[in-house]
Design a protein that fits this description.
Elements: E1 5-7, E2 12-13, E3 36-43, E4 49-56, E5 77-84, E6 86-94, E7 99-107, E8 111-115, H1 117-123
Parallel strand pairs: 3-8
Antiparallel strand pairs: 1-2, 1-8, 3-5, 4-6, 6-7
Length: 127
């Protein structure tokens, strides 16, 4: 089993079957204003996450792995990132090398993301 992500802060699923994206932008600063956003990601799936990439959607390169030499452990591991307000492409790589990629996600407020087993299946195209 794999998981997909939910954006808990707005209680709206970012990913459904086949990875369609539904996003309700929060009130606050808008991308490109120089404001910063805090993003807390919790992995409640059964799989360790070994790589986490977030790059501006305007950048064709993934850039650095935001986990570095760490992992985001299964069953409750948490990481918090501070990112400039922007629209991001996001890629996770789990312990099996499976990738979950979501494109064009506007992020410009404090958010909490939850990675669960059932939802990553859809993101990786297993449903």
């Amino acid at each position: 089993m794999r998981s997909q992500w939910l954006i808990v802060a707005s209680f709206v699923s970012l990913f459904g079957a086949g990875c369609p994206v539904t996003y309700v932008p929060p009130a606050g600063p808008t991308p490109g204003t120089g404001a910063m956003a805090s993003i807390t990601i919790q992995n409640v799936s059964s799989y360790d996450i070994y790589r986490l990439y977030m790059s501006s959607s305007s950048d064709p390169n993934w850039g650095e792995d935001h986990l570095g030499t760490s992992i985001l452990p299964a069953n409750g591991g948490t990481v918090t990132l501070s990112m400039p307000c922007d629209t991001y492409d996001i890629k996770l790589v789990d312990e099996d090398g499976d990738e979950c990629t979501v494109m064009h996600q506007p992020l410009c407020s404090d958010n909490a993301w939850l990675i669960t087993n059932d939802e990553l299946l859809s993101c990786e195209g297993y449903r």
